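Predicting holo structure, zinc ion bound.
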Amino acid sequence: MKTALDLLSFIEASPTPFHCVAEAATRLKAAGFSPVTETGTFGHEPGAARYCVRGDGSLIAWRGGAVAPAEGGFRLVGAHTDSPNLRLKPRPARAKEGYLLYDVDVYGGVLLATWTDRDLGLAGRIVVDVEGRLESRLIRLDAPRARVTNLAIHLNREVNDKGLVLNKHQHLAPLLGLWPEGASGTPRDVVIAALATAAGVRPEQVRGHDLCLYDTLPPALGGVDDAFLFAPRLDNQAMCHAALTALIDTPPGRATAVIALFDHEEVGSGTARGADGPFLGDVMLRLAGGDEPRCRAVARSHLISADMAHAVHPHHAEQHDREHMPRLNAGPVIKTNDNQRYATDGTTAALFRSLCADLGVPCQEFVNRPDLACGTTIGPISASRLGVPTVDVGNPMLSMHSIREMAGSRDPALMTAVMTAFLGGAR
Ligand code: ZN
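Done. Tokens:
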């Protein structure tokens, strides 16, 4: 339960991918890891604990192996820092029918109906001009709260039979306040002034932003015997937390232990800091000390791609293959898809099953129904970019991509234990 409670505080500190990376960096520093920058020089140092951030939203951390990567290989765990949400447009506000609204775009596969009637805060990164230099600052505004407001059932009589249909352009702008006729200034001025105050600068210094709305209700334990976690962003901050905790707990081993927490998975990973970009490959190249030793290192390496998995839903069990139906609090899930939507194969699954067996951790299997479209992860992308054998795993959960998701409270400790053994070089 200690791991689960720590996960809840990690999520509470991480309303955006940028905050997730900042919180990871804070924890790494406290555990003796030191930052390196991509503009500097770095390479393999036995036992050294380091981390590197790209674009504020992705982070790679490692503990150097006792021998060089060409001899000891890499033990890698990958996860993603981003979650589907609503984000502010470049012109972040407008007025409509006497209301002040945030103007929002949709990031990733949001379960839109779950964003209605929630108390929304605003957080993320703003870029400010400080005496001619552009600087990124993280901000978090728990107030003023905004709201994507539902239409009363009296004005939408068929909603319970036909479902809540929300047009992404017309129906999602959250209400932030009132905007009476003849109000002074512009809606944009009001929002930019709030951002500037939060960042401790003047409004004219604000030059850019990447801002997300988030549910201000804190994560919580739920259910009889605290069986459940109710929290936003379990996909995939739960796996970021497991990877991070495992790396911090891992004593130095022969292999170089690496975790890679990537932004932009929910939109396909094809960005400078995403898993389909060169970030992890670049770090591995530098740690290996060149192309030839990197190839030797890759041939000795293994990757766990960790992303949350679909637990069976009691009202929709037919959506699962009955023989591959994960349950909450029953341990990590190995995800397999023969069409390589997941990177798992017989050998990589066997390694993960063996790690679980050695620890007495139960292990589950997930295969999507072949007549339904299967999701994917950073697993196949990383495997094809790096050439490292990869297994796709995750903890079971419900309500994936809802504003408030749900998982088991016993599973985080189990996955963390398996990752710790793996990063430490077991098997
Ligand atoms: Zn995910």
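The CA atoms of residues 203 and 392 lie 45 Å apart.
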